[in-house]
Design a protein that fits this description.
The structure holds two protein chains of two kinds.
Chain A: H1 5-18, H2 24-35, H3 46-64, E1 79-82, H4 86-90, H5 92-105, E2 109-110, H6 122-125, H7 127-144, E3 148-151, H8 155-168, E4 177-179, H9 180-189, E5 194-195, E6 204-206, H10 210-213, H11 221-229, H12 259-266, H13 268-277, E7 281-283, H14 287-300, E8 305-307, H15 309-316, E9 317-318
Parallel strand pairs in A: 1-2, 1-3, 3-4, 6-7, 7-8
Antiparallel strand pairs in A: 5-9
Helix pairs in contact in A: 5-15, 7-8, 9-11, 12-14
Chain B: H1 2-9, H2 11-41, H3 49-60, H4 71-90, H5 92-102, H6 111-134, H7 136-141, H8 144-165, H9 170-190, H10 198-201, H11 205-212, H12 219-226, H13 250-262
Helix pairs in contact in B: 1-2, 1-9, 2-9, 2-11, 3-11, 4-5, 4-6, 6-8, 8-9
The chains are: A alpha/beta, B mainly alpha.
Chain lengths: 320, 265
């Protein structure tokens, strides 16, 4: 009958949050992001961020023998890069992959110390938060005079930026929003990024994060990229726009109290699907999916490593 | 008896038909007006008309889209709708009535096809009723009208078929015709005020979904201000799980007894 469940859920949660009923984890993170000193959901201060990025660059220098920087506060850069801020501490390999791609393509990008968190929990529970977080992105983008917003490997961050940035930050004149997979795919298609076709030999499968695949946005790009450098790509069914959700979406992954439900009941269908695929790596380009799937693998006893797309891509990039 | 049938075919039919047309037109226009208001209020004017058009057409003829969950139910429903839409408009006897009423009409479908479609509706209507009754998920969601509608909709078809093909006497024929006309009138009159209005609203559902997600700018702040939280956003207070807010704004103070009742913890 054409009833949009998503909109009803969204409005229901908004109403609940306005009468004071919202998951504690989300409220605490949002408070830090909008009112706290660090200004992001994981309370990572700027010095820690810079230290970490420097460390990653050194690591890559040792491993690949070339300098791969993380440009900080570069005014006039083309892309402002905003991953899920937890990636800075927890997904080093994804970040290294991201930086390596830019080193290979040569496009100008930057991370801004004024604001560096793509996460937007407002998408799940409060429109005021949704808007204010996007305003933070806009202020940083204007401060550094970038031309495009680039969201890292995160489902809800991509969705909230792509579909709500025009609403709250300029309508038709708003800056374009891209997802890093979109960028990498485009660069590879144009021949500006070269990948080694035999980089990964083990079986690799792909999990579609709901927020970017259901709108039909990031569907074929990661698959084409994976097939370009993985000799043994196995798909799961159903997939693409009919994917099975990881079970941790809409903020539920942040709520530790319901982990048994998430991993044993809500995520069971996905666990069965991954178990059946029998792959060594499962690529899940979404911070929330990664957390949920890793907990799923642990609680359901499945031997499969959950990684981001750029984690594996990093191993395949050929630098001229 | 004749007088009742004439009344049912005459003034009552005209009333029911007008209610149906005007009522459906009203709800259709109200939806469009609502869409216009939502579109104007949001700074996001980016609408993918082609995608919406494609999806709308796709869902109007949902062959290939409905086989994942409850395929048998979906098949029954599609056949039910086919008969419902074709027979009242394109049955030869009805086409003559349209011609008499409007002054013009259109070609009718061959009688055998109309007969088969009618039998299909008579079979699938009660089948939908049973499918709803015997499926736990459907039962939980169903109101009284959800059970009654498939049966009510089948009645004109049962009585119509008997009138056309039944070997019955004149008195029985008149009763059948009476029930036929009056149930059809009832259906038409109720259409705009019940879920059957989806006949005109379903084509708009994809557009409604697309536009509804374009929120007005600053709406979050305005809502907070209206609730008395202009300077203290709701998400900045201690979470509810630690107990209720000791100093709530007026709007929330009124809600607190309700919150206690709903969530005693």
């Amino acid at each position: 009958m054409g009833i949009d469940h998503g909109l009803i859920t969204h409005l229901g949660r908004y109403i609940l949050s306005e009468i004071g009923i919202a998951p504690r984890a989300l409220v605490v993170s949002t408070r830090e992001q909008l009112l706290g000193t660090t200004g992001n959901t994981s309370a990572i201060p700027v010095p820690a961020l810079l230290d970490n990025l420097e460390f990653l660059s050194e690591d890559m220098q040792e491993e690949r023998g070339i300098e791969i920087p993380f440009p900080i506060d570069q005014e006039g850069a083309e892309y402002l890069f905003l991953p899920a801020v937890s990636d800075f501490l927890m997904e080093a390999e994804t970040l290294m992959g991201n930086a390596a791609v830019f080193r290979a393509t040569g496009d100008s990008w930057t991370i801004g110390t004024g604001y560096y968190d793509g996460i937007n929990y407002g998408l799940f529970y409060n429109d005021q938060v949704l808007e204010h977080v996007l305003h933070k992105i806009r202020r940083e983008a204007e401060r550094l005079r970038v031309r495009k917003i680039l969201i890292g490997e995160c489902g809800h961050a991509s969705r909230s930026a792509k579909f709500f940035y025009p609403t709250f930050c300029g309508g038709r004149d708003a800056l374009p929003v891209m997802n890093i997979i979109e960028y990498t795919h485009k660069a590879w298609k144009e021949g500006r990024l070269k990948l080694n076709p035999d980089a990964i030999g083990e079986p690799v499968t792909y999990h579609d994060p709901c927020n970017i695949s259901r709108p039909g946005w990031i569907v074929e790009q990661p698959r084409e990229l994976l097939k370009a450098f993985c000799r043994n790509y196995v798909g799961m069914t159903p997939n693409r726009r009919d994917n099975i959700c990881c079970g941790g979406g809409a903020g539920t992954v942040s709520i530790d109290e319901i982990r048994p439900y998430r991993t044993l009941i809500g995520g069971k269908a996905k666990a069965d699907q991954i178990r059946a695929a029998g792959a060594k790596y499962c690529v899940a380009p979404c911070a929330n999916c990664k957390k949920q799937l890793r907990e799923l693998m642990e609680d359901q006893g499945i031997d499969c490593q959950i990684v981001g797309l750029h984690d594996l891509l990093y191993k395949a990039i050929i630098f001229d | 008896m004749e007088a009742w049938i004439d009344f049912g075919r005459g003034p009552l039919f005209r009333l029911a038909f007008s209610l149906m047309v005007l009522g459906l037109l009203r709800i259709f226009l109200l939806t469009l007006l609502g869409l216009r208001q939502a579109y104007r209020q949001s700074p996001d004017k980016i609408v993918s008309w082609k995608e919406i058009g494609r999806k709308t057409v796709g869902w109007l003829f949902p062959v290939g889209r409905l086989w994942k969950v409850r395929p048998v139910y979906s098949a029954i429903s599609v056949l039910f709708h086919a008969g419902l839409l074709v027979v009242p408009l394109l049955l030869a006897s009805h086409v003559l009535l349209w011609k008499r009423g409007l002054g013009f009409a259109w070609p009718a479908v061959p009688q055998p096809l109309a007969d088969w479609l009618t039998l299909l509706v008579i079979a699938t209507g009660p089948a939908l009723f049973l499918a709803r009754l015997l499926n736990r998920g459907a039962r939980v969601l169903s109101r009284r009208q959800d059970y009654l509608w498939p049966l009510l909709l089948a009645l004109p078809f049962v009585t119509g078929y008997i009138c056309t093909h039944g070997a019955i006497g004149p008195e029985a024929y008149q009763w059948m015709m009476l029930v036929h006309v009056y149930t059809a009138n009832l259906i038409m009159a109720l259409m705009p005020f019940s879920k059957i209005a989806h006949c005109v609203l379903a084509p708009l559902s994809q557009l409604v979904t697309a536009i509804s997600w374009k929120f007005p700018e600053g709406a979050g702040d305005k809502v907070a201000a209206t609730l008395g939280y202009a300077n203290r956003p709701t998400w900045a207070e201690k979470s509810r799980l630690g107990g209720l807010d000791p100093d709530p704004a007026p709007a929330r103070r009124e809600a607190q007894p309700m919150i206690k009742e709903v969530c005693p913890r």
